Automatic annotation (TrEMBL), chain A:
UniProt entry tagged with the keyword Membrane: yes
Taxonomic lineage: Bacteria, Pseudomonadati, Pseudomonadota, Gammaproteobacteria, Oceanospirillales
Pfam families reported for this sequence: BPD_transp_1
Coiled-coil ranges (or none): none
Protein name: Arginine ABC transporter permease protein ArtM
Keywords, alphabetical: Amino-acid transport, Cell inner membrane, Cell membrane, Membrane, Transmembrane, Transmembrane helix, Transport
UniProtKB/TrEMBL annotation, chain B:
GO cellular component: plasma membrane
Protein name per its UniProtKB record: Histidine/lysine/arginine/ornithine ABC transporter ATP-binding protein
Compartment(s) of residence: Cell inner membrane
Organism listed in the record: Halomonas salipaludis
Annotated ABC transporter domain residues: 19-264
One GO MF term: ATP hydrolysis activity
Amino acid sequence: MNINAIIEGLPRFIDGVIITVTYAGGSLLIGFFMAIPVALMRSSRNRFFYWFSTGYVTFFRGTPLLAQLFLVYYGAGQFHHELDVIGLWDFFREPWFCAIFTLTLNTTAYTSEIWRGGLQAIPKAEIEAARACGLSDFQLLRHIMFPRALGIGWPAYTNEVVYQIQATSLVSVISVMDITGVARSIASRDFVYYEAFLFAAALYLLLVYGFIAFSRLVEKKLHRHLKDTTT
Amino acid sequence: MSSIINDERKSNADRQEQLRVSGLYKSYGDTPVLHGVNVSACAGDVISVIGSSGSGKSTFLRCLNLIETPEAGEIFMSGEKLPISYDHKRGAVITNKNKLQQIRSKVGMVFQDFNLWPHKTIYENLVLAPIKVKGVKKEVAYASADHYLNKTGLYEKKDAYPGQMSGGQQQRAAIARALCMEPEIILFDEPTSSLDPELVGEVLLVMKALADEGRTMIVVTHEMAFAREVSNRVLFFRNGVIEDQGPPSHIFGENASDACTKFVNA
Ligand SMILES: Nc1ncnc2c1ncn2[C@@H]1O[C@H](COP(=O)(O)OP(=O)(O)O)[C@@H](O)[C@H]1O
Ligand SMILES: [Mg+2]
């Protein structure tokens, strides 16, 4: 065991953790909200909305994230001129942008299915009661359907967050210095593969179980109405 | 006591018309469910709707606030025509959503299975629509919720979730939720049919108190005692039409239609 190499590399690992948390957290945060319109389009009777959202979800759930990342990062290079014209090349030339862009589109696809499942699981009668009170479509979604769907979908969403934290490790292949990127760099420079990746694994475990602990608290709050306290 | 009120109701002929339904039709696929229902109700009427299962009672009630869309027919609530039109190509179309929401806010509805929102406390169930739909101030909405919770005997349950209460309590809360909107008319769809027998009484008591206050109510029910003693008019549904109607003395008397007599004596 070469502990010194890890101790020396600690500041870089901390930067890696920040990158991992930022990329996973940023893509999850944007994806959480972007998934809502996608889920609504998936349940829409409008054929354009339905096919557009279904095509999107099918592609991003049906192909490997790594392939998607290459498609965006290397594929964008082929459209260098076109992207330049519309002012987007400065973004698509950057690995950080391509990484967050792809991660976001990917988690949005998965999260939209969680939202859709949650919305569909709400008993029709509860929705009817809200309509009977005169709530508008938006108020119905905002006050009844979204909170209900969130409660129903939270356990599934917790899994999505866990997968996403781990999936961010793929961005290291387009030279982003996340936890895995730092581990690779330290490992190959000092020839300490075993130590570096074991430490990286420990960091992922910490992040994942940190989130799971937090998720339990959220779940308690979301499911407080299921507590059977006969007061 | 209720008979005195019934008499008062009958004598008061020039009361304001609260509801008028004409030519209501509805079918599900090939199955006709309502075939031309015509009804009117005045302020203060308590109308019981009876009839065997599948005769179209719920469908009728649900058409009154367009939770179900009829295929033909006009409905007036408090003098306002419900914004629905019938188009050969597109079928029934809601022509003005805002108007519909505004009319719905004046029509309370109580369901067989309560349909409280399980993720909200009783308090939250009661104040949501007054605040969001009617734009009532928060303090006013909570004060009104307190009032109706006291009235339905549920004040100490205000912070409970629906799942933590008995069926009778949930149904009383659902009635309180409807009352918090200060509705001009309240529709009840078999409000006691999902309850254990020992819990039916507490809900009927609340409903009787509402009738005694002079509220306008349309109640689909299998409780013949309620139809006979609390309502001032009874509609007997059979195969999607009102086969017979009149004051309880008629429906439960000798001149009612054969099917009606058979039904109420079953
Ligand atoms: N959503 C629906 N789809 C198909 N058929 C329905 C639906 N709702 C009610 N029906 C049918 O319409 C008829 C009348 O139903 P309903 O109005 O619920 O009767 P009631 O309340 O008098 O028991 C029944 O035969 C029922 O099976
Ligand atoms: Mg029914």
